[in-house]
Amino acid sequence: QSALTQPPSLSGSPEQSVTISCTGTSSDVGGYNYVSWYQQHPGKAPKLMIYDVSRRPSGVPDRFSGSKSGNTASLTISGLQAEDEADYYCCSYAGSSTVFGGGTKLTVL
Amino acid sequence: EVQLLESGGGLVQPGGSLRLSCAASGFTFSNYAMSWVRQAPGKGLEWVSALSGSATNTYYADSVKGRFTISRDNSKNTLYLQMNSLRAEDTAIYYCAKVPRLWQLVHFDYWGQGTLVTVSS
User: How many other CB atoms are found less than 10 A from the CB of residue A41?
Assistant: First the structure.
């Protein structure tokens, strides 16, 4: 149950695109198409942004997209907006458990 | 509208016990697995435990196995987490989260606002 690996921080200017990576193993990210991404603003509960690698829940802007290749999943945010500044966590099903990434703090410059 | 409301957090001494509750509404509670996820102050999310909709399948992180017990009362639409032998490293906000499947922990589609547990002497 080792945590998935994410970059601790990333930054981007408004309207730019950023991609957050999430690396696991064949026992989690690489073994299932059940990667999800969560956005968390300070003092708030996490919010589901992407599930099943690339699906968006209703109400999530299509600026958010997900993908996966091998043991690494990615979240891409295009057309960055000020409100996208938050912490982002990846998560993967791992059979009889689930595992989160360490989180990435996204700063919009 | 799905709502999850946690309660039961507070200050407890090392070695002590606490029981968290999560009252659910807005969906057919027994049809979905439920989970607890925690976040230590200034740290990331950590999955803690989960329970299938019918309560037949339980899942625990290694860090809490043998100390925490998850349960649910489908007649009361309530999820519980009994925490025993608490340690300082269990200090965290504990979130209740809904899973959109009966037992497979694919992702968490709704979250409560969390309840703070502080383990300190």
Answer: 13
Q: Taking Cα atoms as reference points, which of A20, A90, A101, A1 lies closest to residue B49?
A: A1
Helix (H, G, I), strand (E, B) or coil at A43: coil
| pLDDT of the residue at B71 | 97
Tokens representing A78 are 């295009």
Across the interface, of B50, B61, B111, the residue whose CB is closest to A46 is B111
Inform me whether the pLDDT recorded for A1 exceeds 90.
Answer: no
Retrieve residue B33's tokens.
Answer: 């697995």
* A42 close contact with B: CB closer than 8 A: no
Mean pLDDT of B69-98: 98
Of residues A40, A83, A35, the one with CA closest to residue A63: A83
Closest CA to B10 of B70, B97, B92: B92
Interface check for A58 against chain B (CB to CB < 8 A): the answer is no
